[in-house]
Amino acid sequence: MARIRFQTDEHLDNAVAHQLRVRSLDAFTTHEAGLRAASDPAHLAAALAGGRVMVTEDDDYLRLHAAGVAHAGIVYFPPESRTIGQMVAKLEELAEEVDAEAMIGRVQYR
Asked: Of the candidates 18, 33, 13, 12, which has an alpha carbon nearest to the alpha carbon of residue 76?
């Protein structure tokens, strides 16, 4: 059972990825991926290539999913619905409940 690896969207505070790493989870920021200002499809493609689940508040990713764009998983938080701490807690909980393979092509609303 492979653990989920996360990639945060450029609109999320980098503290989300930092706090996930503090909790021994694998998390990467858009900046670290060299994808600042890249298109959403490019973000999803890079996350898929790296086996990473995209974490976002951007509903454009939901449209890409609905259009059948391949991805390693999407975790969607409605904009401004959670604090950084709440996001981290929900992502940590998800990583305990679901493995990386089960997330492929799946959207989790948190």
From this structure: 12
Contact (Cβ atoms closer than 8 angstroms) between residue 87 and residue 11 = no
The CATH number that domain 5-109 falls under is 3.40.50
Residue with tokens 């959403």: 40
Rounded distance between C-alpha atoms, residue 66 and residue 14, angstroms? 27
What residue spans of the chain are helical by DSSP H? 14-22, 40-49, 60-66, 84-97, 100-103
Rg of the Cα atoms in the chain: 12
The residue ranges of every structural domain in the chain are 5-109
Residues ≥6 apart with Cβ < 8 Å to 97: none
- pTM value is 0.94
- pLDDT tens digit sequence for 57-81: 999 999 999 999 999 999 999 998 8
